[in-house]
Amino acid sequence: MRIVSLYPAATEIVALLGLADQLVGVSHECDFPPALKGLPQVTKCTIPTHASSAEIDAAVREKLTNGEMLYEIDAKLLQHLEPDLILTQSLCKVCAVDRASIELSMGSLAYSTKILALQPTGLEAVLHDIQLIAAATDCSERGSQILDSLRSRIHYVEQTVKKSSYRPTVVMLEWIEPLFCSGHWTPELIRIAGAHEQIGREQELSRTISISEIIAANPDILLLACCGYNKDLTLDDVQRTDLLSQLASITAVKNNQVYLGDGNAYFNRPGPRLVDTLEMLASAFHPDLFNFPESHPQLSRWCDL
Fold first, then answer.
1. Alpha carbon distance 170, 256 (integer Å)
2. Which of 68, 77, 139, 304 has the fewest CB atoms found within 10 Å of its own CB?
3. Are 172 and 185 in contact (CB under 8 A)?
4. Parent domain of 226
5. Is residue 160 part of a domain?
6. Domain count of the chain?
7. CA angle, 152 then 164 then 288, to 5°
8. Nearest Cα to 213, choosing from 164, 178, 261, 257?
9. Checking phi first, is residue 285 left (phi over 0); if not, alpha (psi -120 to 50) or beta?
10. How far is CA 50 from CA 66, 158, 250, in A?
11. What pLDDT, on a 0 to 100 scale, did the predictor assign at position 95?
């Protein structure tokens, strides 16, 4: 099977299924696993990806208002690759190319190419996507093994946090300027990891919020993991906006309970590494209950940076 994945989470799932050798093309954002680097990139972004969060937000809003595309597809390359299966998403206009754009780019080949558009809003839906891709690639048995392993890790976290009655309050930010709270699967992960998200709601869209809302919530823990940003880019934005000075009165800042996460690789990518994200959260919320190896990805504590 010749597979083109235009969705980073789907690319990770394909690789985990052992089908990396069947990938013939990816998007410009598909950066994991690193071994896939060098595959033809079928898309490119039309907005500056390394600008500040305010500049990116303004550019995205302007393009969406004007009906312009955030991504360009190399239609000639896509047709040349002759994929049997194209993977994308239909959850967010900002996250990846949509099905309609793909069909237009494929031209007459669209009739003979299967397009699978994923739309996960919660953790269970992400697990279901693994099942869907496994079925579409004739790897259902391998898919079941992967799901069993992921569910076992989730179950371990669920059972372990029950050993403590402590449930810290949390506010998670997915964007800095303007401020966005968490949404979709993130509040669910926070709950499973043994804490309470104060503003974001499970399986709902993230939304713009104000400084005053965060101050009113007064969380025990503040998490910062910007969508599409690694830790360094998030750190730059937080420092540039002087965010923590504006939040100096909240418990999380007073008690040095502010954490940075890699939003691009973990928090905002609905693939198998969401379980890594869950384990990172559990370890930060309940360090006395979890002792993952040093090699396991971790949140960075602001005061240690």
1. 13
2. 304
3. no
4. 166-304
5. no
6. 2
7. 80
8. 178
9. alpha
10. 22, 37, 30
11. 58
Residue 25's nearest CA partner among 102, 139, 127 is 102
286 token code pair: 């309940």
Amino acid (one-letter) located at 9 = A
Over the chain (305 residues), the average pLDDT of each successive run of 10 is 95 97 95 94 80 82 75 89 91 65 73 87 96 97 98 98 97 96 97 98 95 98 95 94 97 98 96 98 97 93 89
User: The tokens of 44 are what?
Assistant: 């490119």
Alpha helices per DSSP H over 45-172: 53-65, 75-81, 99-106, 123-136, 140-161
Position 106 scores a pLDDT of 76
Given 112, 144, 176, which residue is the final one in a domain? Answer: 144
Q: Tell me the Ramachandran region of residue 45: left when phi exceeds 0, alpha when psi lies from -120 to 50, beta otherwise.
A: beta
Q: Is the pTM for the entire model greater than 0.90? A: yes
Verify that 139 and 180 share a domain, yes or no.
Answer: no
Task: Report the C-alpha gap between 110 and 68 in whole angstroms.
Answer: 22
The answer to the question of residue 184 being in a domain is yes
CA distance 217 to 116: 40
